[in-house]
Design a protein that fits this description.
Blueprint: H1 5-40, H2 50-64, H3 68-74, H4 76-83, H5 89-113, H6 117-125, H7 130-164, H8 171-181, H9 186-214
Helix pairs in contact: 1-5, 1-7, 1-8, 2-5, 4-5, 5-7, 6-7, 7-8, 7-9, 8-9
């Protein structure tokens, strides 16, 4: 590989990390409360509201059913409205966030369901409010599982950020298409694949390490 590709690979890696990190932060800030709401409003739970739960669940399932590449194209008008452009690294984060929020919501809901209901009953018997149960029982007890689930979401985002390169989203995917595919330079394609593999392995290692440290069992 020629030396001129090293700066391009470094820049593309930086764009990918930027896209994934910012998208994950925003999506988590919205997706975690969504997951709590999905869990808490379910039948027999502390904020039981079947109708509300059904509405939220339907919207979440509808968004999750849309393939990411179609979602990117479908919300181009929204992306332009929010960031002023439909191409570039910042623009790619809009569909990344929208796709990740319901995914995180369902993952968090699954983690919360793993908490023994006996702990919730014990908190209720001591007069704890629903918000106190969520903040002091549910989230702390399910945190190792939530971290593990969020690690899966980050890895998914890495793949989706590469896919965003297909429509000018920047990052490693964009580099692989423009230089590796369109200019017939297979070494560039191989380099981007290797970098993505290393990035995913690093994310998985960090996520597993954090989850183990949070697990008090």
């Amino acid at each position: 590989m020629s030396n001129d590709m090293i700066p391009l690979l470094t820049k593309a890696l930086g764009e990918t990390v930027y896209m994934v990190a910012v998208s994950m932060a925003i999506a988590s800030a919205l997706g975690i409360p969504l997951g709590v709401m999905l869990y808490a409003t379910d039948k027999g739970q502390i904020l039981e509201s079947p109708n509300l739960n059904k509405i939220i669940g339907t919207v979440v399932n509808a968004i999750r059913s849309i393939p990411f590449i179609i979602l990117m194209v479908a919300i181009i008008p929204l992306t332009r409205l929010l960031v002023g452009s439909a191409i570039g690294t910042t623009a790619a984060m809009v569909p990344l966030v929208i796709a990740s929020i319901p995914f995180i919501g369902r993952q968090v809901e699954t983690s919360l369901k793993e908490v023994p209901y006996g702990l919730i009953e014990a908190a209720l018997s001591m007069g704890a409010t629903p918000m106190q149960i969520i903040g002091r029982v549910l989230l702390p007890e399910s945190m190792p599982s939530i971290v593990a689930q969020l690690t899966t979401v980050v890895i998914s985002l890495v793949g989706e950020s590469a896919m965003a390169g297909a429509i000018g989203g920047g990052g490693l995917g964009d580099l692989a298409i423009r230089y590796g595919y369109q200019r017939f330079r297979p070494e560039v394609m191989i380099a981007t694949v290797i970098i993505l593999i290393v990035l995913v392995q690093a994310v998985q290692f960090v996520g597993n390490t954090i989850a183990k440290r949070l697990d008090k069992k």
